[in-house]
Design goal:
Keywords: Signal. By secondary structure, this protein is α+β, with helices and mostly antiparallel strands. The chain contains four helices and six strands, in the order αβααββββαβ. The protein has one domain. The protein is about 35% helix and about 35% strand. A hairpin with a 5-residue loop joins strand 4 and strand 5. The radius of gyration is 16 Å and the shape is elongated.
Length: about 140
């Protein structure tokens, strides 16, 4: 019964990410908690909370798989990269991380994610306005 509820929660979580990222630019994809921490290393309070929870549950970050939004293949330079939102099941707790993604061209000019030309010209992305919630 426990396995079924875990599978159902994961399926519903994936469905939520599909609905949230329903534009052609985004799709859900797996990412390790290590990679999430690396991406959000400037969020000291968040990373401290994550490490404390890992320690409390005797887990290692590399053992935890999260789901994050993924740039689709139409993004010439960003295709496959993961970005917020992230959702991680850390032992008995779920961590939902939200934020805003900004994309930039080679010259550092911010681009509009909804313009088709951005798929070709985007060279990097940054995540801002990071918030999180434990459940």
């Amino acid at each position: 019964m426990h396995g079924l509820s875990t599978a159902l929660r994961r399926a519903l979580g994936t469905l939520a990410f599909i609905v949230i990222g329903s534009s052609a630019a985004w799709a859900p994809g797996s990412i390790t908690l290590d990679d999430v921490i690396e991406q959000l290393q400037d969020q000291e309070k968040l990373t401290a909370e994550i490490f404390a929870e890992l320690k409390a549950q005797n887990l290692k970050a590399e053992e935890v798989i999260c789901v994050g939004s993924r740039f689709g293949g139409q993004w010439r330079n960003l295709g496959g990269a993961r970005a917020v939102p992230f959702e991680c099941e850390i032992g008995k707790k779920k961590l939902a991380i939200e934020g805003t993604v900004h994309i930039y061209d080679d010259a550092g000019k911010e681009l509009d994610m909804n313009e088709d030309a951005s798929f070709e010209h985007a060279a990097e992305y940054r995540q801002a306005d990071i918030t999180w919630k434990w459940q």
